[in-house]
Specification:
alpha/beta, four-stranded antiparallel beta sheet
């Protein structure tokens, strides 16, 4: 009986892999590879391998039960229930992704309306009927026919697809090959193998691989995956163009800009424009640096990194003949991963700089909170023709890129075409701000912070104390979700 149940479970999982693939075709419909041959080859391998994992997952969980309690009347209803739930949620996720370009999560479930819940229940009922019919058909087929080798060759082939897709992705990430890495965000719960193993084993020369990737990236049109910027920039630079020096001190808190702690920086701030209520775009080095260059929420980082899409400000620097000098105390590929984002199209980039100073290891600043102490940061600007001043309204890293684009390069586009902020000199304060981490993000308001975790959400007051029995601000969260998806194509 155990062997027969295992045969049935394998056949049921194969049938579900086919059902999931049919439902998941909607993901492929919205995918347009940068390079058709390798792009579609990898996408096909990843699509088949990942959806097969989702199909086999509930059956793998039930294997111990099959071995201990080999009762078909117990195993089959459990398997049908789990498979129908997965099928229903996959169908709903594909519809959500088609409309909004993001996948289901706890937050999106919290904001589902009554009609959507009704449709989900309908999907679940229909899924249970379909899964039940498939399960009974496979059970009769297993009972009538003896075991054949092809029954086990099929899962082996699916496993080969899974392994091959992870190997190709690791190779693609190591070589900055966007036609491969760009596909990641199209599948739900998809986390392919990264390039760390290849680099650690010395199988990839990061510097030469990057230069090859930069040369190849110049021929790719990333607008197949991103709608960035939303409109071509209309710019009329005002000569003479100013030199730009950007000094970044990672994880520097706003309250340490004092003569006692930072005497040189405090002296500089006396004759400059100082922004007293300035906030970072996240509680990690990666999200903070991403918001500095792009003016966008750090939740976009993965999509821009996978496509090696630089920010518009770097394109403007290059277009106007600026010479770039980079002096970093840490490798640019570590922590903030600037080599894949802001500096993605910069040739001959020095990936590492040796620093004699302590604390220059380059490891990421990763903090678990989104409170005032960890989100507020100093911002000091010296701009020719602008007198020293103290700016007290709320500003953020999202405002830096629009400042340079409009004030330096004379672009007339509204900042919303390419960023989430405004010019630092516009006098506009933000009403809410998206702060990003690695696995979570927060919507920050002047009087509260809504933290969205992988398993739920929590709302905290201005002092970052938990608010008991909070009500999710649905309109605000819908606006935030729109802001975090409007640059996807």
């Amino acid at each position: 009986m155990r062997r027969q149940l295992l045969r049935w479970a394998n056949g049921f999982a194969l049938a579900n892999a086919a059902l999931f693939a049919i439902v998941g075709l909607r993901y492929l419909w919205h995918y347009s590879p940068l390079e058709p041959l390798l792009g579609w080859t990898y996408a096909g391998l990843a699509f088949v391998g990942h959806l097969s994992v989702l199909a086999y997952a509930p059956l793998v969980l039930l294997v111990p039960v099959m071995l201990l309690i080999p009762w078909p009347r117990l195993i089959i209803p459990l398997a049908v229930s789990l498979a129908s739930i997965l099928l229903s949620f996959l169908l709903l996720d594909s519809l959500v992704f088609a409309e909004n370009r993001y996948h289901l999560g706890f937050l999106t479930f919290s904001m589902l309306g009554p009609h959507t819940w009704a449709f989900l229940v309908l999907y679940l009922v229909l899924g249970t009927v379909v899964e039940g019919m498939v399960a009974l058909w496979i059970l009769r087929r297993v009972a009538r026919r003896p075991a054949r080798r092809i029954e086990w060759y099929a899962p082996l082939a699916l496993g080969v697809c899974l392994l091959a897709s992870n190997i190709v992705h690791a190779w693609g990430e190591a070589h900055y090959y966007a036609p491969v890495t760009a596909f990641t965000r199209y599948l739900p719960l998809y986390r392919p193998r990264t390039d760390r193993g290849l680099v650690r084993l010395g199988l990839v020369d990061r510097t030469s691989a990057r230069e090859q990737g930069v040369a190849a990236a110049l021929g790719w049109s990333t607008n197949r995956g991103l709608n960035y910027p939303l409109a071509p920039l209309r710019c009329d630079p005002r000569p003479p163009l100013l030199n730009v020096l950007l000094v970044v001190i990672d994880a520097m808190r706003a309250d340490v800009l004092t003569p006692a702690v930072a005497p040189r920086t405090a002296e500089l701030a006396q004759d400059a424009i100082r922004f007293d209520a300035h906030y970072s775009g996240g509680n990690s080095s990666r999200a903070g640096m991403f918001s500095v260059f792009y003016g966008l929420p750090g939740t976009y980082w993965e999509a821009f990194s996978n496509l090696t899409q630089p920010p518009v400000i770097m394109d403007l620097f290059r277009r106007n003949g600026y010479q770039l000098g980079l002096f970093a105390s840490a490798p640019v590929y570590r922590a903030a991963a600037l080599d894949r984002t802001a500096l993605a199209r910069v040739p001959n980039l020095r990936l590492e700089t040796v620093s004699p100073y302590k604390g220059s290891s380059g490891w990421d600043r990763a903090i678990t909170a989104f409170d005032e102490l960890q989100m507020r940061t100093p911002m000091v600007i010296r701009w020719p023709g602008r007198p020293p001043a103290r700016i007290t309204h709320r500003t953020s890293h999202n405002d830096l890129a629009p400042t340079l684009v409009t004030e330096l390069f004379g672009c007339t586009n509204p900042p919303s075409d390419y960023a989430s902020g405004h010019s630092l000199f516009s006098g506009v304060a933000w009403d809410w701000l998206i702060g990003a981490g690695y696995e979570d993000f927060a919507v920050i308001e002047p009087d509260r912070v809504t933290v969205v975790l992988g398993s739920g959400y929590e709302i905290r007051d201005k002092s970052y104390r938990l608010i008991p029995h909070p009500t999710l601000p649905r309109d605000l969260m819908q606006s935030a979700m729109h802001e975090m998806s409007r640059f996807y194509r």
